[in-house]
Design a protein that fits this description.
357 residues, alpha/beta, Rna Polymerase Sigma Factor, Chain: A, ten-stranded mixed beta sheet
Amino acid sequence: MTRLFAALFGGLILVLAAPALAAPTVKEGDVVIRDFRFRSGEALPELRLHYRTLGEPRRDTSGRVVNAVMILHGTGGSGAQFLRPQFADVLFRPGGLLDPAKYYIILPDGIGHGASSKPSDGLRARFPAYDYDDMVEAQRRLLVDGLKVDRLRLILGTSMGCMHAFVWGEAHPEFADALMPLACLPTQIAGRNRVWRQMLMEAIRSDPAWKGGNYVEQPLQGLRTAQSLLSLAGGAPLPMQLALPTREAADAWTGKTIPAAMAGLDANDLLFQVNASRTYDPSAGLERITVPVMWINSADDFINPPELGLAETFAPRIRRGTYVLLPVSPDGKGHGTHTWAAFWQDRLAALLAASGG
């Protein structure tokens, strides 16, 4: 980004960038929160939250923004992922459900992700051990203090962002008109879901090159195992079987895909990202969610398998909630279905209609 300028807003520095020239126009900026305190008791003198926006805020007669939509990414992602064709070309197009001509769309990079403050900026293993509550509070500060948005038309969250949506619904039940959590469960990370995450973190920590997080070069052995687990967890069994029908095809895919996916990974960043889920558990407070909720999972999701029956237990406790399980299909994306909007845009349309049009 070039031609940056900054303005001081109390405890925050709002840094705005010149708008991009793409269609729809994407603006980028940073909000710097001073003296941000984490639930662990740690603090950062400055916490930087990067964001992207599409569209313009529309205000009512009192000056309140009435058309803001926040979309939250998954573990290891960033707000930039929602600019990919499978999401943006479906929802952000002219006349689309989230047309920037109508909505002010906010795409934050969570703590530890994208261009927001993260361990690889310099603190490495000394970076505060953030969790999902910290990430949600930073998002709230970004909105309220940085962008002057104190009400959202919609929070849509994918994977980790899905879990953030449940945290938002309980911690700030009147902040958003509607919630759309995609690809998660509103309960603590346990069972196989915790096991594969723990395996990932231990793979990084047990690499001799790790050096307690103060590595000279990336611990590639640990990162290879970590990325292998991520690729497995994000895959869809039926499409993978159809696309890789022989041993040779599967081995070739692995040999090509895993090294390519490792490019750009930082071990500290990844470890902190995965570890952030350790305290998540909104199961006790689901009755506090009062707005319409459209909660969607996929039947071919390795991370949130439907056979656990957990969604059917929790869904009735969300008073205005609708739970949808997308079926297995040859075109399915497994856990990644959350960012292929064609699979669920009809459900988004229903949620927007049910919560005010």
